[in-house]
Amino acid sequence: MKTPNARRQDSDPGFTGNGDSNQLNPIFARPGEATDFPLNELPRGESAPETAYQVVHDEAMLDGNSRLNLATFVGTWMDPLAGKLYSETVDKNMVDKDEYPQTAAIETRCWKMIASLWNAPDPDGAIGTSTIGSSEACMLGGLALKRRWQTARRAAGVSTEKPNLILSSAVQVCWEKFCNYWDVEARYVPISDDHKVLDGHDLDKYVDENTIGVVAIMGVTYTGMYEPVAEIAKALDRIQADTGLDIPIHVDGASGGMIAPFLQPDLEWDFRLERVASISTSAHKYGLVYPGLGWVVWRTVADLPADLVFDVTYLGGHMPSFALNFSRPGAQVLLQYYLFLRLGWDGYYKVQKASQDVAVYLAGEIGKMSAFDLWNDGTDIPVFAWQLAAGYTDKWNLYHLSERLRLKGWLIPAYPMPDDLTDLVVQRIVVRNGLSRNLAESLIGDIADAVAYLDALESPMPTEGLVTSFTH
């Protein structure tokens, strides 16, 4: 007697019957649905929607628990009404402003609110746009810097070859991509124990007449620390006084752009500094929206070269467009507006302060453990990092601790620091909305248990196969 798989193999030449397929548990099956689906080929026939749902749902369960993922900056929770609004508006294409004019109007309201939040001298005279995320926002900011530099150089009758951009060695990878894709030389200022962030130190050694701008980071990805934008601006002021070079700043506020206005309102990092030409942020990080949404705002309309803005005829209408993506979701823009109305300034302050309080608590408790030395304490954005104390142990390292914590469901990455500090391995925790003090206390207990287990080992842990788990 043939098995069910053998019978199906006779009747269906597309059946694989091996490990390269998805097989339903018969207890879930309806008549005719006890079958396999190929993993890497389009199935030959249809299936019931309930069946397809069950397969995808079951596979998604194999992912980690997003609430315990302390590696990612990306938001993992919104309230039920936000979910309802999302499902009602998921079909909107943000770029199709002729078809969805109210969504377009709400987009403008949002970036004007953000311009005001970032202390633009005249929010109505600023210009901004939503993007698919902070990476696109950064690239648009970088493109504007390059085009402004090219325009000024052509007007002066000099070469527009070999533009360069000044960056911290701890910069997010999207800036490396920008420089690669748009033929800009990346000049990295290395961080060190003495200069943990780009702070204006020795900046004159990196800039020249081909420098299109300097990127300052409000919340370095590796550690969560703010770069002192005001100090960078002062260094560029001195350079201009000595050389005549007028070099603008783009602030990459991927995380801090939605933290500093609420938790450090007196910190001057934004458009209060005249040298800041543009600022970007990631709305799906501390903007609290589901991915993917970013924002970029220029101080004035003049700071965004007009020849980068396209007037597009689309579905019977005209619309200005400055984006790398022509079709992207509009629902997230509406979710951002929902949160602005729902929370207001006071609500955002409470949410961000709660995250910061948990980060400071965690950093304090980890800093008390003799095994670790803190790199920072979570008082900038709610993110901090630590290293293994020098000479503490030769039995284990932070990669082993990361693996041990994963057994409890916690995703806490271990990774080497950037160039000039690559021998230093750190761990980092990102506290987001949803990590409660109660969960944080449980995490401290699990870290203490993991350290006790590793300390009790009679011989060193193997180092083969250890991998960096750093997540941007």
From TrEMBL:
Residue list for modification N6-(pyridoxal phosphate)lysine: 285
Class in the EC hierarchy, top level: lyase
Cofactor(s) for this UniProt protein: pyridoxal 5'-phosphate
InterPro entries hit by this protein: Glutamate_decarboxylase, PyrdxlP-dep_de-COase, PyrdxlP-dep_Trfase, PyrdxlP-dep_Trfase_major
Entry's Gene Ontology BP terms: L-glutamate catabolic process
Pfam family, one: Pyridoxal_deC
Catalytic activity annotation: L-glutamate + H(+) = 4-aminobutanoate + CO2
Region described as Disordered: 1-36
Xref: SUPFAM superfamilies: PLP-dependent transferases
Highest taxon above the source species: Bacteria
GO terms assigned for molecular function: aromatic-L-amino-acid decarboxylase activity; glutamate decarboxylase activity; pyridoxal phosphate binding
Cellular-component GO terms for this entry: cytosol
Assigned EC number: 4.1.1.15
UniProt entry keywords in alphabetical sequence: Decarboxylase, Lyase, Pyridoxal phosphate
Transmembrane segments: none
Similarity comment: Belongs to the group II decarboxylase family.
Record's protein name: Glutamate decarboxylase
Organism: Microbacterium terrae
GN (gene name): gadB
